[in-house]
């Protein structure tokens, strides 16, 4: 265990109703690290994020954040401890304007980014402040979904497939944003299927299969192990 | 000049418009609360009327504190105090209701979110009914608002002006909070995706409770404001809530502003109707609702798509012994034939009529998944038509019953055609409102004899030679009708047509994608259900020799629902068992008068909280578990023996 570990997940089991989705997840993230969970559809990546957030009710195991046990806590409690969640489906509220969407998540701790800094990171959002959330393109929605959790002062960001279904140029922009977030000291847990995207950003990778971590390696290992990783991710 | 041309005095016109506007203010405040609560909680707040009534009584209680709680030295608190305190108190009661009862159905099928508030409404209104009967106290006008202003063309009482201004301000304030503030953005976001809003750190459950309390507080405020104008009575909520539902259907619940505008507008329309066609003023809103449904099913301001989602609450286990139609038809035949030797035939006939009624209701609720609140319209209108044809036209009983059933079928086609345009809560509200239309008609028409109903209906001679005045003859005739209806429903459900109905219940979009015109199937099923409910109603009119307003009252619809729920939704025997329980309950409480309403309301709530599968559904589960265990026990010793033999 690294001494300054931010999040530790130990032996996490989770269920959707009767069907079991997580079979003993184990991984950890150090403060300021960008870590990915890689894996195919249905491997349990999203479920892991939902379990950390408290959105998955039926679960056992340990989820320690800054030393505090969060397994069994309600989502609103988890969020207030400083974990922010950007869901796969983006969750932009259609009845709210861009600005309202941005301002929606309450500030949970000091040290969140200032609005001006956020808009500097996402210039397109500034232009569209007053449009309804659903009037945005897919890329803009994804940016909005990331932008709105930067204000809150959360230290750990859970990003669920931020590049899914987006054009390469947008994917590149999002990659740049995540790199900047790392510079600013955010800890990021990134769920990805797009390994080529993740490889450039992350310090460490975990490969998830059938609801458990089957392999892990650092950025330094990637060059040698890329074939093996591709095998894991191939459909 | 203009007024002389149309022959209406300006005093009358403006007077009625003023009354209409005031009604409109109350409609707006109430439908706003209903819309907010439904938007956020997906709860059809049938108890809204009762909460409005609580507001009116609350104002009166505060005024009479010294005499209500003597010895405490409490002062009498007037109108202005009531205006502040009562809405908060009513909101507090609302918060408790949410905390204790309503919260427990959020994760269940949405239909339960209609049943629990409905049950609570019966309990609250029943209790006040016990204490105050049909009458009620009169509340006084606040001193500051006595008198009025002469506007030249009319006299404007100050209090009415105050109600209009304050009511509209309350509505606009609500609109502002929801559409323009941070809190409002939380509410709107939580309406769309409550989980994600929680994951941002907002305590959504508490917000839901406060939203419910706020909507209810608005009803309480309306009640306080209404107390000096209208008669304060336990029934005041019941009569307004059905109108509110029609208003909500007309406006659509997509827009806060729409709810306010629709409420005001319909109040004015009602006022105008009173000037030009007084008899139609009680029904005009329901007629407008029907017209809107034809031309703009989503409502005037409705934004939401008319998504296809039926209610699958079926408790049946297909293979169960209790679902074996042939077996139970035989058992019911034998049991039914023996019954009059153990209980009074009248008692048995009541059970049979209600069992058929509940079975008919179960056809649409249990097997198609449509929760309607309007089956009283079919039961009652068939009762009236059968009674009328038998009493006034001298029809023999079999023809009288057929004509009653035919009338119910016709009404069923029309109501079904209108109601299946909408789903879920809307379907429930539309059927309730349409049934109320029939009820108002029966109050006003001459052939129905108003409050008296049609009495002394002759039982006559069946096929000209079987004297139905003989109790046993009558009983066996009713038994045959029941068995035929029971068999027919069983046959319908087991037919290919019935299989399509079940597929609609389980997943309507999938049924559509397989090429079924689901709306047509629903309409046919609805019509069949209405016709069979009509047979039950017509038969009861002949048996009890009377057709009267209670047959058409919404409590009759509630009976059908309750019987199905207690017995087991979507089960073969559930409605029959439910009918036996209901008749037993009504007989038990008969001496206690209005307590029966309270008991029925409590039964609704308790069933949803503790007996969701009903008696029969629970029994089927138990039998299935027992046979599973038995199978496991049989295989286990065999396995052990095999293992030992192998050793």
Sum up the structure in keywords.
heterodimer; A: 235 residues; alpha/beta; Rossmann fold; 6-stranded mixed sheet; 4-stranded antiparallel sheet; 9 helices; globular; B: 647 residues; mainly alpha; ABC transporter involved in vitamin B12 uptake, BtuC; two-stranded antiparallel sheet; 4 strands; 2% strand; disordered C terminus
At a glance:
With 235 residues, chain A is of the alpha/beta class. Chain A is built from nine helices and ten strands. The longest helix of chain A is centred in the C-terminal third of the chain and has 16 residues.
Give the SSE map.
The complex is a heterodimer of chains A (235) and B (647).
Chain A: E1 5-16, E2 19-30, E3 34-38, H1 45-53, E4 59-65, E5 68-69, H2 75-80, E6 83-86, H3 98-103, H4 115-121, H5 123-127, H6 138-147, E7 156-160, H7 168-183, E8 187-192, H8 195-201, E9 204-209, E10 212-218, H9 219-233
Parallel strand pairs in A: 3-8, 3-9, 6-7, 7-8
Antiparallel strand pairs in A: 1-2, 1-4, 4-5, 9-10
Helix pairs in contact in A: 7-8
Chain B: H1 2-6, H2 10-41, H3 48-63, H4 65-68, H5 79-100, H6 112-132, E1 148-150, E2 155-157, H7 158-180, H8 182-192, H9 194-199, H10 204-226, H11 236-251, H12 256-276, H13 284-295, H14 325-338, H15 345-365, H16 376-391, H17 397-419, H18 424-444, E3 461-462, E4 466-467, H19 471-494, H20 496-506, H21 508-513, H22 518-544, H23 549-552, H24 554-567, H25 574-589, H26 595-610, H27 614-646
Antiparallel strand pairs in B: 1-2, 3-4
């Amino acid at each position: 265990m690294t001494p300054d570990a931010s999040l530790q997940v130990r032996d996490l089991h989770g269920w959707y109703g009767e069907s079991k989705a997580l079979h003993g997840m184990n991984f950890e993230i150090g403060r300021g690290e960008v870590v990915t969970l890689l894996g195919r559809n249905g491997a349990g990546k999203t479920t892991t994020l939902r379990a950390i957030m408290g959105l998955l009710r039926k679960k056992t195991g340990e989820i320690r954040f800054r030393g505090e046990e969060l397994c069994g806590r309600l989502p609103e409690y988890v969020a207030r401890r400083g974990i922010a969640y950007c869901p796969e489906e983006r969750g932009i509220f259609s009845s709210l304007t861009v600005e309202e969407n941005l301002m929606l998540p309450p500030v949970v701790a000091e040290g969140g980014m200032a609005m001006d800094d956020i808009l500097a990171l996402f210039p397109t959002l500034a232009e569209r402040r007053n449009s309804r959330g659903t009037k945005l393109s897919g890329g803009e929605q994804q940016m909005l979904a990331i932008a709105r959790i930067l204000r809150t002062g959360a230290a750990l960001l859970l990003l669920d497939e931020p590049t899914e279904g987006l054009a390469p140029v947008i994917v590149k922009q999002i990659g740049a944003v995540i790199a900047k977030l790392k510079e600013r000291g955010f800890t990021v847990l990134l769920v990805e299927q797009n390994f080529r995207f993740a490889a450039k950003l992350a310090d460490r990778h975990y490969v998830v299969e059938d609801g458990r971590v089957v392999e892990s390696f650092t950025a330094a290992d990637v060059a040698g192990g890329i074939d093996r990783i591709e095998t894991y991710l191939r459909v | 000049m203009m007024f002389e041309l149309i022959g209406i005095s300006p005093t009358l016109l403006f007077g009625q418009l003023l009354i209409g506007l005031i009604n409109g203010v109350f409609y707006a405040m109430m439908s706003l609360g209903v819309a907010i609560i439904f938007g956020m909680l997906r709860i059809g707040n049938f108890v809204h009327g009762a909460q409005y009534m609580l507001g009116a009584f609350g104002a009166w209680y505060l005024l009479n504190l010294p005499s209500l709680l003597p010895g405490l030295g409490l002062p009498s608190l007037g109108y202005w105090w009531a205006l502040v305190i009562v809405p908060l108190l009513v909101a507090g009661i609302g918060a408790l209701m949410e905390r204790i009862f309503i919260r427990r159905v959020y994760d269940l099928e949405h239909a339960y979110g209609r049943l629990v508030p409905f049950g609570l409404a019966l309990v609250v209104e029943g209790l006040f009914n016990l204490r105050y009967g049909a009458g009620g106290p009169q509340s006084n006008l606040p001193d500051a608002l006595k008198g009025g202003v002469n506007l030249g063309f009319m006299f404007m009482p100050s209090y009415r002006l105050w109600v209009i201004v304050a009511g509209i301000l309350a509505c606009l304030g609500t609109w502002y909070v929801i559409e323009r503030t941070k809190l409002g953005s939380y509410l709107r976001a939580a309406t769309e995706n409550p989980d994600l809003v929680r994951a941002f750190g907002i305590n959504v459950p508490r917000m839901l409770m406060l939203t419910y309390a706020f909507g209810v507080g608005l009803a309480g405020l309306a009640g306080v404001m209404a107390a000096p104008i209208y008669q304060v009575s336990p029934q005041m909520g019941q009569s307004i809530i059905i109108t509110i539902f029609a208003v909500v259907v007309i406006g659509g619940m997509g827009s806060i502003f729409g709810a306010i505008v629709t409420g005001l507008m319909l109040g004015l329309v009602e006022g105008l109707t009173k000037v030009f066609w007084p008899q139609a003023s009680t029904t005009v809103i329901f007629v407008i609702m029907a017209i809107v449904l034809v031309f703009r099913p989503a409502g005037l301001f409705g934004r939401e798509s008319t998504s296809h989602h039926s209610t699958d609450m079926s408790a049946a286990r297909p293979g169960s012994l209790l679902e074996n139609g042939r077996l139970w038809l035989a058992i019911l035949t034998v049991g039914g034939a023996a019954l009059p030797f153990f209980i009074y035939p009248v008692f048995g006939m009541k059970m049979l009529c209600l069992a058929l009624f509940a079975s008919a209701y179960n056809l649409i609720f249990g097997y198609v998944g449509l929760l309607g609140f309007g089956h009283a319209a079919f039961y009652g209108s068939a009762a009236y038509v059968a009674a009328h044809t038998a009493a006034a036209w001298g029809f023999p009983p079999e023809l009288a019953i057929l004509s009653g059933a035919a009338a119910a079928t016709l009404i069923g086609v029309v109501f079904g055609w209108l109601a299946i345009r909408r789903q879920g809560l809307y379907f429930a509200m539309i059927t309730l409102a349409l049934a109320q239309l029939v009820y108002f008609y029966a109050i006003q028409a001459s052939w129905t004899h108003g409050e008296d109903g049609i009495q002394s209906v002759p039982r006559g001679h069946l096929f000209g030679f079987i004297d139905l005045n003989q109790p046993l003859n009558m009983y066996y005739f009713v038994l045959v009708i029941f068995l035929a209806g029971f068999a027919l429903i069983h046959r319908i459900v087991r037919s290919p047509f019935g299989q399509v109905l079940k597929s609609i219940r389980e997943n309507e979009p999938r049924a559509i994608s397989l090429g079924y015109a689901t709306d047509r199937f629903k309409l046919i099923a609805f019509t069949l259900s209405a016709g069979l409910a009509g047979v039950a109603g017509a038969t009861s009119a002949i048996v009890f020799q009377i057709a009267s307003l209670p047959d058409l009252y919404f409590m009759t619809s509630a009976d059908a629902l309750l019987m199905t729920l207690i017995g087991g939704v979507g089960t073969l025997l559930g409605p029959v068992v439910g009918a036996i329980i209901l008749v037993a309950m009504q007989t038990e409480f008969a001496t206690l008068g209005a307590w029966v309403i309270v008991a029925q309301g409590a039964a609704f709530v308790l069933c949803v909280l503790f007996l969701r599968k009903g008696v029969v559904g629970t029994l089927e589960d138990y039998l299935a578990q027992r046979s599973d265990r038995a199978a496991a026990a049989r295989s286990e010793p065999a396995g052990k023996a095999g293992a030992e033999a192998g050793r």
